[in-house]
Write a structure and sequence with these properties.
Elements lengths: L1 H46 L1 H4 L8 E4 L5 E4 L2 E2 L6 E2 L2 H32 L2 H15 L3 H20 L7 H25 L3 H9 L4 H12 L1 H17 L2 H6 L17 H8 L8 H35 L2
Antiparallel strand pairs: 1-2, 3-4
């Protein structure tokens, strides 16, 4: 009876393991299928834009200036009979928000991650780490509202900007969202560095700060880099904050204190009000396809870096 009972338990465990493995496989496969379907749908709708709009017009179009001279201009004005569909202002606007946001969050997020992994006591870490993760859960519309009502006025008064709502205000708001991403992944990457490296450094007479900057950070630099790339991908995909805080003016500019319009803000602001199947509708899906491709590449590069770091540290 005892032997039969053990066999029954082993059989039951195997069945349970098989079911769990299959459920995990189905879940992973479903995620891949959903992503593929999203890409196919975006591509299918976006490719129609090339049949409705001349490909060169996605870069720019010739317009008449005040002296009736024809000049080549990059403009996004998809209204009227002769709509202009240059996506250059949208791409520039997206990166004009994402790059400063990534820079700000890298300085603060990496610093916070190093503090949590190497300096903070266990008690402080137990309080700070959940607080950082809680920051990631704040609705972006709340952050956008704070940028719109408080931060924008403060920035304009401090820097005497022409535009109250601009790329810099949006970048600060977006950085609040991606700081937790960078801080959390940096913390995990540095804590994954084997303790033997720290002990060897201390054994050679290095100080704590020398060990952190010359041993631990270089060993975990792949994970830190991946966190920054993932943060930038998150910044490019942010919608609500940039809709509320950047001014939504599709301008070709390199000035972070100028109003800009991002790809996500354009899709959010216009897609619900355009007729299905029209030129503007397809152009918006083309913008979405470009955004999807950029963020997909960034996430793929980050995952490759993290995978290489795990192999390097034999995790």
């Amino acid at each position: 009876m005892l032997v039969e009972s053990r066999k029954t338990n082993v059989r039951r465990q195997r069945i349970q393991e098989f079911i769990i493995e299959e459920l995990l496989f189905v879940g992973g496969l479903a995620a891949i299928v959903f992503i593929a379907l999203i890409f196919i749908f975006l591509f299918k709708e976006g490719i129609k834009a090339f049949f409705l709009i001349k490909p060169l017009e996605f870069i720019g179009t010739h317009i008449l200036d005040f002296d009736d001279n024809r000049v080549f201009a990059c403009m996004w004005q998809p209204v009227g009979e002769s709509g202009k569909y240059s996506i250059i202002p949208l791409i520039i606007g997206s990166f004009l928000v994402a790059l400063p946001a990534t820079l700000i969050s890298t300085i603060l997020g990496v610093g916070c991650g190093i503090y949590l992994a190497e300096i903070a006591t266990a008690k402080i870490r137990e309080g700070v780490k959940p607080a950082i993760e809680l920051l990631a859960g704040i609705p972006t519309v709340v952050i956008g509202f704070l940028c719109l009502t408080i931060l924008a006025t403060y920035v304009q008064n401090s820097f005497h900007t022409t535009f109250r709502l601009n790329a810099f205000v949006g970048a600060i708001g977006v950085s609040m969202v991606i700081i937790p991403v960078i801080a959390s992944i940096t913390d995990d990457a540095l804590r994954a560095v084997p303790g033997e490296l720290r002990e060897a450094s201390y054994g050679l007479g290095a100080t704590k700060w020398e060990t952190i900057w010359k041993v631990v950070v270089p060993a975990g630099i792949s994970g830190v880099t991946a966190s920054i790339i993932l943060g930038m991908g998150r910044a490019l995909g942010e919608t609500m904050i940039v809709v509320m805080a950047t001014g939504n003016a599709a301008l070709v500019t390199g000035n972070v204190f100028s109003s800009v319009r991002t790809m996500t803000a354009t899709i959010a602001a216009e897609l619900g009000a355009v007729p299905q199947g029209g030129s503007q509708y397809c152009a918006l899906f083309l913008v979405g396809s470009i955004l999807f491709f950029i963020t997909f590449v960034l996430n793929l590069v980050a995952e490759m870096i993290i995978s290489r770091m795990r192999k390097k540290l034999r995790l």
